[in-house]
Queue: 4 jobs
Job 1
Amino acid sequence: MSSMSRFRHVYNGKLFQNSFSSRPQNQQIVFYSKVPRGFKNTQKKENIGFTGYIFLIVPATTFCLGVWQFNRRRWKIDKIAELENKVKLAAPDLFPENLASVSEEEYTKYKVRGHFDHTQEIFIGPRSLLSDDGGTRGFGLISTGEKVGYHVITPFQVENGPRILINRGWIPRTMLDPRTRAEGQIQGTVDLVGMLRNDEETLAMVPKNQVEKDTWFSRDIGALASRLHTQKIFLDLDLQSSVYAAERGGPIGGQTRISLRNDHVQYMMTWWGVSILTTILWLKRFVW
């Protein structure tokens, strides 16, 4: 044996030998190591293969769903702006003589002539008073410090036409009795402008209407029409048409709130979050 001592370095089951001149002869040093310091596995993973491409469908699909929700959100914003413009600025159409010609599109503006049947009224509420800009402040047409009240739904006989429902507007709860606003109960033939409405979408926490008790929490046009013996046509009176009555204590019109659900941001972030997560998992499994 030479004058240099020998040692063995065992790495992953392989024996490596080296020598030191400073050690006594015949003395061997054995080192064991799983991964040497600074070691980096540069071995490339196998090809992705058919299975990898199949799993790639999940992040790709959820990303596309997020893009779709983004586009839907843009469409909904434009639609809300269009409806607000229709409610505030568009000229009204004459109410058709034929009921089959009544538009099915909500917020269509109609001009009608006829008279109210004040012997029958239904109150929907409680409701906050809406201003002309969609806020919840008053118009100064009636002197009340109350912020919560009810919508007054009254049958309206269209001249040479059907009997329909009209939401005359908002009154405070202290004026539910018609005798407290007798001057605001406009008699005779009037010309009005109103917006066509559909059934109201309600949250789970909103109580159900108690028709037999005449207690109404939401706009159910079919049930209202049956109760007041009218056609299933419902108009929200606009502010201008209600000024004369409101100045005399009657309901304040212009209570149309544009209510289109716009929760696309939530769905968009959910789909994109799932896409990012599944992309990371796919990369760790098939690439990294």
Job 2
Amino acid sequence: FFFSSRRRHTRSASVSWARRCVQETAVRGLALSARHPYLFSCSEDKSVYCWDLEQNKIVRKYHGHLSGVYSIAIHPTLDVIITGGRDSVARVWDIRTKSNVHSLEGHGDTVGSVLTQEYEPQVITGSYDSTIKLWDLGMGKCMQTLTQHKKAIRSMVMHHEEYTFASAAADKIRVWKCPDGQPLRNIAGHNTIINTMSLNKDNVLVTGGDNGTMYFWDWQSGYNFHQIQTIPQPGSLSCEAGIFASLFDLSSLRLITGECDKTIKIWKEDPTATPQTHPIKLTHLPPVQLPLTLK
């Protein structure tokens, strides 16, 4: 992988986009609906907005959080969104009526990450109190609390085919099996605060750290086959190298990152890479991985 392009967030943005940036403090989460022309945003100013991308304006506002909102997710089949914030509560909102359907209470600190899926558990929350909770969306009650993490959980990712998900904290990455949260395996080695995780269709897991490092892992084996240190924007401080957000595009060939130096970077695969230039050290693989078939 290598750095291919970047853009800096400045006042040179288009007027139409600038008019949409009305949230007063940092925007902590975005979610794009696959069934409606809506974009949802959440911010540290306690606001949750629904943007109509066809009309280029805010069409709904959701009020109820008592502090900054740090995470947001859209249910894949129901017209609800789930938000989590510094008030230690995850709230379920009806998209159309704006009503607060459920308040999922029980965490002791900021709800830093929210996942949702069609099957049980339909809502999964990760918190800075180092716990993960699995929720019954219909009843609005916690079904299971996972306490194996020892550090704050800032990011989680759902597998696109398996009935599994992964959570990341400063101690390690853990993979869980739904619906009861059975631990499957641990992935250790990225020794920093992990702010973001992304998984592509080829089962490449990427973790982005507070120190500007990105680790690339094989999902099944947990083998770390590549590492990248991002380059801060010229004029930025060295401490502004943190990676706060990441996402693969629909082709799974491009990785997009949002970083502390106010840049968005787009990464692509290195077409010149070969098994000779980037060898895989089989001796470093976990015992459960062997034998390994290389393509």
Job 3
Amino acid sequence: MGAPRPSVFSTVLRAVPLSQCRPELVEMGMVVMPPSKLDEISTLELEFPLVFRVCPVSGPNKTSHCGVVEFTAEEGTVYVPDWLLLSLGAFGGDRLNFTTCSLPLGTHVKLQARSKAFLDISNPRAVLEKKLRDYPTLTKGDVIYFSYANKDFEMIVKDTKPSNAISILNADVIVDFDAPEDYEEPTPVPPAPQQAKYNPEEDHHTEDPLRVESYSSLEEESSEEDTTNLFIGKAESVGGKKIADKTTVLGMMGTKKQEDAKVLVMEGGKILYKVRVFFKHLLM
């Protein structure tokens, strides 16, 4: 019997951003490897579809995961989605290590849009679920990318279950959303103060010092007082200027000293107002 074939594949390749060579593939979570790597993989006992753990050979200590879509890249290179390079803190020309691995099927993922413009999509959940079909894996902390209606969107992978890296191929995954990163809660507007409704019944029983009493009530009140000194005349200021045309002043002297007189100011047969005044002399 021959020795068992290895069940792990590992290789190092120089990264080339997909946007520079295969822009139609940038919206996915898979890379393009050279044909020679397919020949190597075919000699191994590997689980398909292939899933790779990827990390920079040098530089930031970051790890992500991806699949492979083709084996048509130039030898020695690997075409990598731009979002994956950004998540790894790597750049075009950097050397990346790819190692096959197995990930658990995902059950839950929480995503957060970078921009609140994502909320303008008529059915964002349906759009995103369709876009995720091109992402065989999701890793917590990654920022994936897709476009829709001529707009570009970035989604932060905030959480994944049951582990920090999951496979979502043929998996029944619950997708939740956090509020967009730039979203601000609207400032609550205090309700406008309600004005009290006028109630004529209440007004009838409310004492109002400025309310003019009816002429009949004034006549009744006047009849109870001393009417011996009743006078009628024109209202004039101290300088002799008329206060109002056709204005009659009715008054009653309360005492001989002409103190505490009640004055009714009328015009056209209607009472304008009533006051009590204190004076020593009344000029007619």
Job 4
Amino acid sequence: MSVQTPGGRQSATWPIGVQEQFKPKSRFDVIRWDYFTENHIYLNNDFTTIQTLKGVDKMDITDILETSLDRLNKKYGRVFTDQKLTNGYRRFDPIRGMEYILDLSLRHQTTSEYTTKRVHLVRPLSQVEIVPMPYVTENSRVNLILPVTRADRDSVVSFLDSYAHTCLNSGDNTNLVIVFIYEMNEAKEDVFSVLKSMSTYYGNKYQNGARISWTSLKTNQPSQLVVMDTVSKQFKADELLLYCTVGIELSIDFLNRVRMNTIDKWQVFFPMGFHQYKPNLIYDEKPYPANIELKKNVGHYGSYFYEQASFYCGDYTRARSEMMTSNGPVDDMLDLFVKQSKLHVFRAIEPALKHRYHDQICDPMLSEDAYQRCLLGRSHGLASQSQLAMLIFEQQKNVDSLHLEVLHQQKDPNIDQMKVK
């Protein structure tokens, strides 16, 4: 019927409840379509050219193919018995949902001839359930838990400076607890004596609301759960905890979003921070910039890292108690809250959380999922794909130039005269 309307076929609308397509304001806002077949998807991210469809992606494509055949048979009277996917395109529109364009080759039931149809499908977001959330404010005290090992000593100084500048100077409602982790066979000499003195100095200098203290722990396996099992005993059930690591830059915006996104007995928050690439690979010369800029050639959002987490002490204690009764293997806090808790696990990009580059060490004793996640994070954290390709190209060019220079010297007559006969 849309052909008969004043606007023609272009005026056709989707059913009520399905939003209009996203309209980009510039070429930078255009949403890319991903091409796929029944078995593979092409260029779906910046790191792969072709990838086999599996898991939820395979289920998604199978579902829309079955839906397409069913809808076409309803429209044309059950005349198609088989279909083949010639071309498939999909993209995620944040306004309306997942969109699909399919070119289908359909076999007619009586003639066995194939005909081609193009269908448009949308998996809308309009059926998403709106979950009522408890009321929260930005007045809660944030207790930052910072584990420090012998290898982290040099990075702690910059973290303390960042905490002093962001929280201590402004009197923000925060409390930093530094956990100095000693090995079981540690020598009698205190390797953290200087850092303890610094934290005591900051604690005595600033008396305007924000606090800083330290404690110690002896273990040969300083995992997130081991640290939190020790520190959580110092806090009440209704206190907000933020597990963090050295090398991050703190900001008031980030701390406020921790307060808003962490809800007692309801939700825990795992922010996805911006990770800096290795400086000597992305910068041509020293000194390196003091600030981390949010640019694609400077870093990336670490989707494989779950180092920072915020939760209430009571929620952590209950999840640990459930884990003890279930006897299920748990590697880290993400695993704990996903497997052993009924809380919402909220994961979101956090542009105000910036990580300075550090060498990632992957423990092979972790579970297979955690170990592979660590390896992926380490490989993606060196530099962008284009930067690594350029470095390899420059290195190969230097090798080729050196090789040509050697060949030229071998043909030089002066070189021949110098050779011993």
